[in-house]
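input
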Amino acid sequence: MSRWRSESAYLGRYAGSGALNTVGGFAVIFLLMWLGVSPFIANVSGYLVGLILGFFASKKFIFRSEGHITSEGIRYLAAFLASFVLNLLVLRFALDSLHWNANLAQLLAAATYTAIMYPLTRWLVFHAGMNPPRLDK
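output
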């Protein structure tokens, strides 16, 4: 399979899985903010839900990894923490420096998280470059 086609398969599954995970995470975030919880506590709560769902979706569906769950889990957690710290920094900047609406700030923070998380999981967590996806699965 060509490198482009292989990467397209990963990106397609990542986008589909990410869309579902995003809906779940944002449902938690916006529900908590609607209930009066601070944007930061709401953000942490939504991303904790996403951490768990995202790991299993990435391992089993996106990258179809057969690696050891513990070592991949530790690497995934590290990738998540790096991406999430940047997410929180962007959220803080958008709220405090740009004075954006909290909902819009959450969307910018989420886009930052996604842009960082994909390459980390693709090349560092699951070593997907070693086993291209089979299109017949």
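quick obs: The chain has a mean pLDDT of 90.
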